[in-house]
Amino acid sequence: MSQHRPPGEPDRPVAVPALPDLPEATVARLPEYLRALHNLAENNHETVSSDWLATAAGVNSAKLRKDLSHLGSYGTRGVGYDVALLIEQIEYVLGLTHRRSVALVGVGNLGHALAGYDGFATRGFRIAALFDADPVRVGEEINGLVVRHVDELSRVASEESIAIGVIATPAAAAQRVADLLVAGGVTSILNFAPCVLAVPDGVDVRKVDLAIELQILSFHEHRKASLTALPAAGESPLTALSGGLAATDPQEAIGT
């Protein structure tokens, strides 16, 4: 089902198709497309080509066109995609047409920064409650919200219809917090704590570990450096392994 407007057809609302079953990789890219589209809309652009949108989102245009085809949007040859319509389609699929209430647990340095971030409100999310176990933090006011004790989490999550829980606690406290969120009816959790959470079926967890991301970048830095370091004359690349584990005999190197 094509969702573009044929040339010359007057502006009118177009029904968004039934919620598609999207590949996870496509879901992960939709927020990037949405960010680029909002930038276009703020600069009064009405249409966008697939090439431009793909470049702005950091993907190739063929992948973008395939992703958007899952939404029933194919654009118009020579015109491109309708920016406003595509924003509506992506926001619908991502569930952003209804503002979702978020509970943030842990208001240390990271949690405090997240609690004060204005970008959540402009993207459909409302920080509805803050929690911490530290008596020094409990009672503190951040962005108009008073920090509650974590023991109130399950009750408040249920009363406030919290849709998403954000965990920004130390790793040792994260599992208890997850259990309290689940007990309060929360089925989506964003976990910043450096640990793996055990949750029941039907509860979705997204893990954000900044240290792991830095380690992955460190690998790429290491790889780029190794590619520029040429082995000495007559030396096999296998003999340059770090930590003194190099093998001078190729057969020895592969364990034969």
TrEMBL record:
A GO-annotated cellular component: cytoplasm
Function: Modulates transcription in response to changes in cellular NADH/NAD(+) redox state.
InterPro entries listed in its UniProt record: CoA-bd, NAD(P)-bd_dom_sf, Rex_actinobacterial-type, Rex_DNA-bd_C_dom, Tscrpt_rep_Rex, WH-like_DNA-bd_sf, WH_DNA-bd_sf
Positions of the DNA-binding region: 32-71
Keywords: Cytoplasm, DNA-binding, NAD, Repressor, Transcription, Transcription regulation
Native source organism of the sequence: Salinispora arenicola
GO MF annotation list: DNA binding; DNA-binding transcription factor activity
Biased composition, class Basic and acidic residues, residue ranges: 1-12
Keyword set includes NAD: yes
Record bears the keyword DNA-binding: yes
Chief place where the protein resides: cytoplasm
Binding site for NAD(+): 106-111
Pfam family, one: Put_DNA-bind_N
Gene assigned in the entry: rex
Protein name: Redox-sensing transcriptional repressor Rex
CoA-binding domain sequence ranges: 96-196
Coiled coil: none
Subunit structure: Homodimer.
GO biological process: negative regulation of DNA-templated transcription; response to redox state
Similarity section: Belongs to the transcriptional regulatory Rex family.
UniProt subcellular location: Cytoplasm
Region (Disordered): 1-20
